[in-house]
Predict the 3D structure of the following.
Amino acid sequence: MKRLKFGLSILFGMIVLSGSLLAQSERVVVYNDYNFQGANMTLTESWEGGRGFDRIIKSIRVPAGYRVTLYTEKNYRGTETSITEDWNPGAGAYWINKARSIRVDRAQIQPPVTLPQPVLDSFPVLYAGTNFDGAAEAVERDKADLSDWDGSPHTIRSMRVPQGWYFVVYTKKNFRGKSYNINSNMTFAPGDAWYNKVRSIKVYKGTPPKQPR
């Protein structure tokens, strides 16, 4: 009988631990070290700043269904960027040690964009996932307004640019702001200079464009 009771107590403890880990996995957790290590803080709601994690955040666990917006100033002010998946960009990334407040939202999960699957190497393609995965849109002409890719519902995380095609991407709508030429496949991750920055695209085929001044 003692063995049975002991066994039941172990089983009950495992069930409680499993429930605890599951509950934790469904919350946003910020860490003061890379690879989800070091001191951490679980966010059950938005964080306006302070509490010892000011400018020391190096990695963040983001459960499915959440959108986390980082700000460079307290009280949700300053430069911002949004992430919807675990964030661990490594040393040197722009947002390392820059977050001073964080807004936590339940992301409005949108159904995948229904588009004919483009034939690879025929047209340039924008992807919502890294490594040319997820919702996609073939692009064969200029796009002056990329609002659909401005974080709601998707962010451009990779681009497939076949040989003979060229992009000039801009930080503002209507081909304004900073620009950058892209003539090969490209992938973006949180912390990259052009992550969630592309607002319009010029598309060229056959002749490389001149670098805009």
